[in-house]
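Work Package 4 report. The design task specified in the project plan requires that, given a folded chain encoded as structure tokens, an amino acid be chosen for each position. We show below one input record used in the internal validation round.
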């Protein structure tokens, strides 16, 4: 599972490196990442891989849907990274929270199992999926 996630992070790193976040065209703005993850090991993997960017960033980890919704209400995030299957809910439930709150934030769905991602198209048409 970690190997698959590591491959996904390599693609993510390339995408993030190609578009620097600048406030005044000279000063990098910290990338604010909301990480929906219930595994300590996977969260550490995300932090390690993203640290390779050598760019300023803040990563807030939440493990519950209530914590996710609260975080969205309290601050701005540049991107959301979400594990697919969490205790009692899935990333699709989190995506629905984003839609209901009318937030326009890139939502990247991460999964360690191919079978989990096969369920996503049945519930959300391709033009609604961000990952």
């Amino acid at each position: 599972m970690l190997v698959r996630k590591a491959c996904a992070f390599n693609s993510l790193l390339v995408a993030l490196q190609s578009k620097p976040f600048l406030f005044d065209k000279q000063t990098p703005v910290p990338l604010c990442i909301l990480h929906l993850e219930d595994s300590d090991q996977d969260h550490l993997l995300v932090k390690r891989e993203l640290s390779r960017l050598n760019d300023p960033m803040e990563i807030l980890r939440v493990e519950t849907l209530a914590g996710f919704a609260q975080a969205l209400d309290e601050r701005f995030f540049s991107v959301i990274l979400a594990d697919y299957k969490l205790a009692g809910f899935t990333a699709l439930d989190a995506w629905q929270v984003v839609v209901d709150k009318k937030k326009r934030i890139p939502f990247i769905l991460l999964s360690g199992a191919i079978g989990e991602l096969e369920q996503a198209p049945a519930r959300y048409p391709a033009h609604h999926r961000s990952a």
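Helices lie at 2-18, 40-51, 65-74, 91-100, 114-118, 120-123. Validation will be extended to a larger panel in the next phase.
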